């Protein structure tokens, strides 16, 4: 049974990592697209792939709790495990509260820009959204690197 929990945990991690790894690739393609319709297409695909993240997070949470129960760890029994739980909670809350509204705003703006000639203000707004998305992705990636480091090295 513990191997099944571990398998689901690894599956969830892979789902989450997929979104984090492909995000910079899509970001670059969205920004480099000269035609706003192409950028919009990349953005829509990016949002679809981003749906892996909540499901991966739920799988990680469920299998992590099961692994902790099976191995006899309490939430506060291991410092590295407590740090991972806290960072994972920050990762999920950050991903659930910041990214969806930002993605929606940027997609709406790209739709407006694709439909008609846009003003310089729209380009400035798009640049601001792109910058916010870059910061968001950087923070999320840094949190994941710390979580993975804690998982591998398990400091006391």
Describe the overall structure:
- It is a single chain.
- Helices cover 87% and strands 0% of the residues.
- The chain is mainly α.
- The protein has one domain (2-153).
- The relative contact order is 0.13.
Q: What class, by secondary structure content?
A: mainly alpha
How many structural units, i.e. domains? 1
**Largest β sheet strand count, sense and barrel closure:** none
What order do the helices and strands follow?
HHHHHH
Number of helices: 6
Unreliable runs: none
Distance between the termini: 27 Å
Please give the radius of gyration in angstroms: 18 Å
Q: Compute the average pLDDT.
A: 91
Fraction of residues in helix? over 70%
Q: Which oligomeric state applies?
A: single chain
Q: What would the principal axes of the Cα set say about the shape?
A: elongated
Number of strands: 0
Strand content: under 5%
Write the layout of secondary structure elements.
Elements: H1 2-32, H2 36-50, H3 52-71, H4 79-97, H5 99-115, H6 120-153
Helix pairs in contact: 1-2, 1-3, 1-6, 2-5, 4-6, 5-6
Provide a short characterization of the protein structure.
Helices cover 87% and strands 0% of the residues. It has one domain.
List keywords for this structure.
156 residues, mainly alpha, 6 helices, elongated
């Amino acid at each position: 049974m513990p191997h099944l929990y571990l398998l689901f945990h690894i599956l969830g991690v892979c789902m989450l990592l997929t979104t984090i790894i492909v995000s910079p690739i899509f970001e670059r393609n969205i920004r480099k697209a000269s035609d706003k319709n192409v950028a919009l297409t990349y953005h829509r695909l990016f949002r679809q792939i981003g749906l892996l993240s909540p499901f991966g997070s739920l799988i990680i949470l469920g299998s992590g709790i099961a692994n902790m129960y099976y191995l006899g760890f309490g939430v506060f029994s291991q410092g590295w495990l407590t740090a991972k739980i806290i960072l994972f909670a920050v990762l999920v809350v950050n991903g659930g509260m910041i990214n969806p509204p930002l993605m929606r705003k940027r997609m709406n703006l790209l739709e407006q820009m694709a439909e008609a000639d846009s003003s310089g203000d729209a380009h400035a707004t798009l640049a601001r959204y792109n910058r916010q998305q870059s910061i968001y992705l950087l923070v999320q990636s840094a949190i994941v690197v710390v979580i993975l480091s804690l998982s591998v090295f398990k400091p006391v």
